[in-house]
Amino acid sequence: MALENNNKELDELSQFKSTCDLVDSSSSSKVERSVGLLGAISLIVGTMIGSGIFASTSSVFNSAGSVGMALIAWTGCGLLVLMISLCYVELGTMIPKSGGEYMYLKEAFGEIPAFLFVFSSSVLLRPIGLSAVLLASGNYLVEPIFGLDCESKDKLIIAKLLACLFLGVIVFVNCASVRWATSMQVVFTAAKLVAIVMLIITGLVRLGQGHNDSFKDAFKGTSTSISDIGYAFYGGLWAYDGWNNLNYVTEELKNPIRDLPLAIMIGIPLVTGCYVLVNIAYLTVLSSAEIAVSNAVAVTLANRLYGVMAWVIPVFVACSTFGAANGSAFTSGRLVYVSAREGHMPKLLAMVHTKRHTPLPALIFTCIIAWIMLIPESSNFSTLVNYFNFAAWTFYGATIAALLWLRYSKPDMKRPYKVFIGIPILVLLCAVYLVVAPFYDYPLESFYCLLFILCGIPVYFIFIKYKLMPKAVLNGFDILTCKIQMLADLSMPAECEEQDLS
């Protein structure tokens, strides 16, 4: 009897696999090259300018100790991001595949480091960043829409509900069309630039009126602690994060060799200039001490100057964070898709919708985890940021080490763009500091993040390398994959079919 049941399961599995193979052979699909230069610039600017410049400037001023050092920190963060971005341009044009750090670590160090990155990023890093940005968006809309007290417990609940709603809209648009997603990115990037321009004009007008007290003795009170200066940079770098998102969609750029470096060289200096000018605008209205204790500097400025129109800034900030979340979801889905295509995630996540050419399962997977991240009571903005920063700079440093290793191990590899060797060395030293420093102030969060990253090693050997799963479970998963594939009108990219054949 058991033998008959086993034979029946095998026949059913064989039937489903035959059907899925027929679907794959008749409608093999892949993502399209549909992102032009404007879309690329919007993706960089749109994901970098999120909540940081509007909400988290206090950490920079608090650690720097003076106006002059704070402005140097904001400028220095921009220069550091530009340097590391140039390193990513070399990697992206040398290895012109989507997936960002995943593909670069795989090329340089092999399967295990690449899997640790995609495991940590897919399950922790990218969903945390997405959740944190959307939670900030919800927080900014709660007060102007619902009129709740800033300290009200209901504010967090409503902010989380709004974040979940926004995430639903984002996943729908990204699943429906790449063009819709990039068009929405352009629109919300324009909206956040309107908010930036409003603040900059306000600052220039205030400077013209003589409100420059904050700039007198600008370096008075500057912290003499190297650790404090480092943490001033650490706070600023959160506001700059998102600079690497274009490397996750290299295969969807119309002209990656031209557009990748050009978009980065336009986008990052633009963001740096905006950040410095906005901070100058804050200082024409608020003192350095007031900025250091404010959790929403832009809103405080609006309440003081804009009167009945003060609601405009929270709405524009919410648009800014929504646009950043859209860009993050767009690129996060591509990371999961590429890693599944390479065999490091379930086969289902490598599938693409046959008509819309979007990695629908990968996008839904990423957004489901981001939804889960919003459930716990501890999922407030600062907690999520602490987890994010440590994990992010761990892998940024590893990626720069990969660049240096490839220079040594594969000197003849074609490099359309080659950065000066001193730049990746300097960036690697900065990354090492930014990884080690959090253990001093946030030892528990940093330890948990490190432990989670290292948990990827047994996961790799059990599920990827040796597939130590009961055969019945694997067969059942194959059947479920085929059913979902047929119901959702999905197909396997040609690259995966070629790997299966080999």
Summarize the structure.
With 502 residues, this protein is mainly α. The chain is built from 22 helices and two strands. Residues 1-5, 15-19, 21-28 and 497-502 have low confidence and may be disordered.
Order of helices and strands: HHHHHHHHHHHHHHEHHHHHHHEH
Look at the structure and give the CATH class of the largest domain: Mainly Alpha
Question: How many alpha or pi helices?
Answer: 22
Number of strands: 2
The largest sheet is:
2 strands, antiparallel
Query: Which architecture of the largest domain per CATH?
Result: Up-down Bundle
Low-pLDDT runs: 1-5, 15-19, 21-28, 497-502
- Give the DSSP E fraction (strand runs of 2 or more residues): under 5%
Q: Kindly report the spatial arrangement of strands forming the biggest sheet.
A: 1-2
**Alpha carbon gap, first and last residue:** 37 Å
Whole-number count of domains: 2
Q: What is the structural class?
A: mainly alpha
**Helix residue percentage:** over 70%
CATH H level, superfamily name of the largest domain: Amino acid/polyamine transporter I
Task: Explain what this protein looks like in three dimensions.
By secondary structure, the protein is mainly α. It has 2 domains: 1-30 and 474-502, no CATH class; 31-468, Amino acid/polyamine transporter I (Up-down Bundle), CATH 1.20.1740. 75% of the residues lie in helices and 1% in strands. The chain has 22 helices and 2 strands. It has helices spanning 2-27, 37-48, 52-55, 57-64, 67-94, 101-109, 111-146, 153-176, 178-208, 226-240, 256-283, 288-293, 297-305, 312-341, 360-373, 381-409, 422-436, 438-441, 443-454, 456-465, 471-488, 494-501; strands at 352-353, 490-491. The protein has a two-stranded antiparallel sheet. Helix 9 runs parallel beside helix 11 (256-283) and helix 14 (312-341) packs across helix 15 (360-373). The chain is globular and about 75 Å long.
